[in-house]
Write a structure and sequence with these properties.
- It contains 10 helices and no strands.
- By secondary structure, the protein is mainly alpha-helical.
- The radius of gyration is 21 Å and the shape is elongated.
Length: 178
């Protein structure tokens, strides 16, 4: 199969092709499509666990195809990574926070993102960093779309407040009784 044919195949078709033929090129192409976004996403949520989580994910995909249950493979990948990150967070709960706060030269945006609550941070990163639609993010987080939008807006507002300060309020003059 040529490179152009691999590029035209969907993620699901590439994975099916790999599992039916064990052609490493098909898997490599699938890996190359998702590796950067997954690494950035994982490293911003739990830097110490990133390598372990991604290794478990890719090894699992190599061994056997996942049960997608009507989902796209990309959605399934982020759901799986999310579960693995949660499992790792239970093992090392506060390690990521310590590492992130001790880094020097970290941008203000990353610092602001790290200060968000877990659900808001996850939704913000999945939507902005991984370029997933909010409907897909809602599916990953097992939320309704409207609740997902609320969390996204709240996270975005907190980041803006951290970067630019609180929103300006109109002037009010207090009346003084004479």
């Amino acid at each position: 199969m040529s490179l152009k044919l691999y590029q035209q195949l969907s993620d699901e078709d590439l994975l099916d092709h790999y599992h039916s033929t064990r052609n490493v090129k098909a898997f490599r192409h699938l890996y190359m499509r998702h590796k950067d976004a997954l690494y950035r996403y994982c490293s911003q949520l739990n830097q110490p666990a990133t390598d372990s989580v991604l290794q478990q994910l890719w090894e699992g995909l190599l061994e056997r195809p996942p049960e997608l249950c009507g989902r796209m493979l990309r959605t399934w990948i982020f759901i799986r990574v999310n579960k693995l990150l949660e499992e790792m967070a239970e093992v090392t709960p506060d390690l990521n926070v310590e590492i992130q706060t001790n880094q020097t030269g970290q941008s203000k945006v990353l610092t602001a993102i790290q200060q968000l609550p877990r659900i808001e941070k996850n939704i913000f990163l999945l939507h902005n960093e991984c370029r997933l639609p909010l409907a897909t993010v809602a599916d990953i987080e097992n939320l309704t779309l409207s609740k997902c939008r609320q969390y996204y807006r709240a996270g975005k507002e907190k980041i803006e407040e951290f970067l630019f300060g609180p929103k300006r309020q109109p002037w009010r003059v207090k009346e003084v009784n004479v």
